[in-house]
Amino acid sequence: MNMLRLVTACMAFAGATLALAQAPRPVVEAEVRKVDLDTQKITLKHGAIPNIDMGAMTMVFRVSDPALLQKAKAGDRITFTADKVDGVITVMSLEPAKP
Ligand SMILES: [Cu+2]
Q: Model-level pTM greater than 0.85?
């Protein structure tokens, strides 16, 4: 194995290790704008989501579990985590904001 190949292999291994050791997803604050039970989507006015490089905005999210939609209604303040699942930004967890 030449040196370049060895270095490349080492970097690939380090990358895989980093992905496995990924920190927990950051918890983000948001205000619920709309909950759509038919399409299982939720519209959030959210703060920055650093793990997916997203700034604050209002947008529609898919949810990882339809049960999450039962925890919130329009106007609620919540905290949530989001990640890309199969390339689609998805709400992974959702809780009412602590007062
Ligand atoms: Cu967004």
A: no
